[in-house]
Amino acid sequence: MNIIVQKYGGTSMANAKCVKNVANKVVRTKKKGNKVVVVVSAPAGMTDELVKRAKEVTEKPSGRELDMILATGEQISISLLAMAIKDLGEEAISFTSSQVGIFTDDNHNKAKIEAIETKKITEALDQNKVVIIAGFQGVTRNFEITTLGRGGSDTSAVAIGVALNASEIEIYTDVDGVYTADPRIVPNAHKISKISFEEMLEMAGSGAKVLHLRSVELAAKNHLPIHLRSSFTDTIGTYVTEEDENMEDVLVRGVAHTTNNAKITLANVPHTSQNIAYIFEEIANNNINVDVITQNYVDKDNLTISYTVSEDEFDSALELANRIGKEVKAQAVFGNEKVAKVCIIGVGMKSAAGVASRVFRCLANEGVEIDMVSTSDINISCIIRESDYQKAVIAIHNEFQL
Amino acid sequence: MNIIVQKYGGTSMANAKCVKNVANKVVRTKKKGNKVVVVVSAPAGMTDELVKRAKEVTEKPSGRELDMILATGEQISISLLAMAIKDLGEEAISFTSSQVGIFTDDNHNKAKIEAIETKKITEALDQNKVVIIAGFQGVTRNFEITTLGRGGSDTSAVAIGVALNASEIEIYTDVDGVYTADPRIVPNAHKISKISFEEMLEMAGSGAKVLHLRSVELAAKNHLPIHLRSSFTDTIGTYVTEEDENMEDVLVRGVAHTTNNAKITLANVPHTSQNIAYIFEEIANNNINVDVITQNYVDKDNLTISYTVSEDEFDSALELANRIGKEVKAQAVFGNEKVAKVCIIGVGMKSAAGVASRVFRCLANEGVEIDMVSTSDINISCIIRESDYQKAVIAIHNEFQL
């Protein structure tokens, strides 16, 4: 018998009406003859509410105690869904991660799943029950409660699917799939019916927030397809799967973008073997996350180094860059708080030349200046002025006839 | 080193300000050189809110799933209090009942504690940490989450105190002790400084809602004194302890009352050996809780039987009584929805005659008609018209100069 793992996000669990809607979907899947395991997130808004409660008590809640309070959100969801399913006449049982044994390392607030005990799950499935498991949370071998970080329920679902050797993972959310571009910006963007794991990884890493990055990595590693779809309709969504010949043969799969970026430049840094390593070590030591990095020779002895950081971290990152700049004898340090990143993604680019030049030409024709470029074999990322990002996304979407 | 167990109720944990106030009290106790274990309830109103969420999903939530959702309230409290204590610079650690190992039977929603593992608690105390434990909840040997029923956190605190061989249990609540009568009715009622376990059991069983009945039973059985006091002041409250010669030597310790009672009478029931047993078996089989029972011979062959039930259960209890009445050939069945119970309690009554006659005379002087009377050696319970209960309580309080 097939095991299907379904994951429902916070908006799908927001109130009693939503919970009953999810219960109906679950029961329908069960009645088709499947064994169903459901992974749920906290009701929409609850995690924020719990963080707020903690922050009212202390400015810096300890990681352990924050996980203790955050884990309650998913516990509320699992019990409500179990009640709703039983109300429809099907047997159901809810489990916390501690009860199942979803073992993680002890990095509170960003724990990684290490192992999953399947005994309780399979016993309950064999008793013809729908099994409902709290996403997002885990437990250490010492029975300390952990959480996986925002979006972690996707990863819980995939990890449970892998452990159970499920035939399919369905991730239900408030959008009906992955689009060729953000439909709010590109009205004729369309839903992608099949996307490869590699492309999805680039999309998720480049601003398409539909799936948690780690969940895609895990699914890819275990060759387990994900069906991403809406919990509010019955429409087929997007299959995230191995690259195969049935996949629509396109050069570019989609365009993703992020706007909350800032750029920092260290100009004319004397090129010594130590300088470059030192700069990025110092940035890492100060817990600033760097996204795109470019470096170019100005002349044979000097380099210009640029990198992007999150806009939230711009002030501290610039202060740090000014200090580092002095230490490495940079001629100047610049910061630009308002940049956007536009990423052009597609496995088709691997075997086709000229995609980059078409991107650059198309942006030039729109008067969009490209500040930084970084490429992999399936992704071209351009850093541009923030005010230009909408016309850039629309132009590229048209250029490649997505 | 002394171990002190402190329990704080929902009103003491209602919001961030309250939580910080509790943290201050805990830290002060710790700084006096005690090891402190704190047991907390869910923030005020949260348990009701969680029940409401469940009822929105299904009219009859399963006991297991209701416990799953209810247990989150206390989990929120323990984490917030741990954060607040750490914020004051003391080490603290929170534990759910599952983490500690507060093992109960598997009667969901009204589980009984069977055993408590003390290993995690004593380890943390030895590391100089304040230990914060979720009250109200427990776990079965099969790691199913249970709850102990309303007021169960008091019982958690006493059971933990017993397991740790604590020197004292402090139960913090929103009143500052046990009073000789309800101060809202008797303005000159005063706080009792010391009350025996026996008297407290009668008070708790008779409408004084300050302590969970089972927690007093447990403390009495283990000779562990409870200090009941307010979390909003530093005033000494009421000590609930063994009867001793230092206890104020009074005939009557206090007057308790309840108003949500209803009375049912089966009049002139032929007295056969089977009838009486049958009547109360049937009532029990229909899950109706009976409080006071009286029976009197009308003549040598016939009895009149009266009993009180909760007002909530009056309709179903009366319907049942009508059926039973026919079966046992009662001459008539009466019901009275509006009765009150007034209880006069004191260990001094054991060795003193004439307390009952003073009660009856005093009520007669006030024109209060006594409908039923039931006595134990330390408790005289009178069932009267509900409209009379205030003057009855005031009159008795004056009569015995409480």
UniProtKB/TrEMBL annotation, chains A, B:
Q: Which reaction does it catalyse?
A: L-aspartate + ATP = 4-phospho-L-aspartate + ADP
Read off the Pfam families from this record.
Answer: AA_kinase, ACT_9
**Gene Ontology molecular function: any one:** aspartate kinase activity
Which residue numbers delimit the ACT domain?
344-402
Question: To which pathway does this protein belong?
Answer: Amino-acid biosynthesis; L-lysine biosynthesis via DAP pathway; (S)-tetrahydrodipicolinate from L-aspartate: step 1/4; Amino-acid biosynthesis; L-methionine biosynthesis via de novo pathway; L-homoserine from L-aspartate: step 1/3; Amino-acid biosynthesis; L-threonine biosynthesis; L-threonine from L-aspartate: step 1/5
Q: Does the keyword Cell division apply?
A: no
Q: Does the keyword Amino-acid biosynthesis apply?
A: yes
Q: Which Gene3D superfamilies does this UniProt record tie to the protein?
A: Acetylglutamate kinase-like, VC0802-like
First-tier enzyme category under EC:
transferase
Report which superkingdom the organism of origin falls in. Bacteria
What Enzyme Commission number does this protein have? 2.7.2.4
Alphabetized, the UniProt keywords read:
Amino-acid biosynthesis, ATP-binding, Diaminopimelate biosynthesis, Kinase, Lysine biosynthesis, Nucleotide-binding, Transferase
Q: Which residues form the signal peptide?
A: none
Its biological purpose: Catalyzes the phosphorylation of the beta-carboxyl group of aspartic acid with ATP to yield 4-phospho-L-aspartate, which is involved in the branched biosynthetic pathway leading to the biosynthesis of amino acids threonine, isoleucine and methionine.
The UniProt similarity line reads: Belongs to the aspartokinase family.
UniProt cross-references to PANTHER family, sorted A to Z: ASPARTATE KINASE (PTHR21499), ASPARTOKINASE (PTHR21499:SF3)
Listed name of the protein: Aspartokinase
Q: What is the lineage of its organism?
A: Bacteria, Bacillati, Bacillota, Clostridia, Eubacteriales
